[in-house]
């Protein structure tokens, strides 16, 4: 028998799992079944509509040679054939899927006002979850192609590359980056996540305006020492740290003393939040303030953890 307290349930998800946590916060049928939520790198916007969903379903049936009135025969299709038909249909409807795209295409819930009241992260959540304490965050690099392997990259070279994207606002970008990340490197300038983090900020600002229920925000900036020439603080790196099992993913975190120390801090914060809705850990972490749009309070997880104010 799986034990626990049914009156103190926390749901946790990373990436697509984080998106599912946000979705449950907008589903009346889930109300009362959980009491706290943690969303890790899960703030991709879902733009699935009823119309797109129906078109996708019809495309899958067409690929399988099934007429719409035989939809129940989907239960008889071998799994791999169903996946292939689904992937072909998704590409037909939305084009090739790009990892880290700011818009989600493919199989996803659509709003009907009954089962799903609204899409999560658009920018906040349904008011049925206004009483749910939330911890939410992302990693520094996420799915970005990093340039950490270029050890001799100069600021001048970084500026030249940045200018292709930011043009005459390159210097402004660098000055704002320096304000947010004072100890930055030229490599950081070219490797910063520009998908999950912006949506996390939009979501948390909206959440803070919706309710005064505890809201805690984090950013994992610790860079993996494993294959550090390319990986950085990548998408999913927070999982073995938050669950204190870096020994199970040495290919992600390594097995160094630094990794274990950070895992101790992060897992203690996660445990305290799961237990009480408050992630503060006296003696291990600086005081973790609740986030507001005004203070931008964000726990910056690195070898030295600190509270930063990102606005």
Task: Explain how this protein is built.
Helix content is 36%, strand content 11%. The chain has 311 residues and is α/β, with parallel strands linked by helices. The chain has 3 domains: 10-47 and 111-144 and 193-309, Alpha/Beta hydrolase fold, catalytic domain (Rossmann fold, 3-Layer(aba) Sandwich); 55-104, no CATH class; 155-191, no CATH class. A 6-stranded mixed beta sheet has the order 1-2-5-6-7-8, with helices on both faces. The mean pLDDT is 93.
CATH fold assignment of the largest domain? Rossmann fold
Order of helices and strands: EHEEHHEEHHHHEHHHEE
CATH class of the largest domain: Alpha Beta
End-to-end CA span: 46 Å
Count of the separate structural domains: 3
Total strands? 8
CATH H-tier superfamily of the largest domain: Alpha/Beta hydrolase fold, catalytic domain
Uncertain residue segments: none
| Mean pLDDT across all amino acids | 93
Largest sheet: 6 strands, mixed
- Count of helical stretches: 10
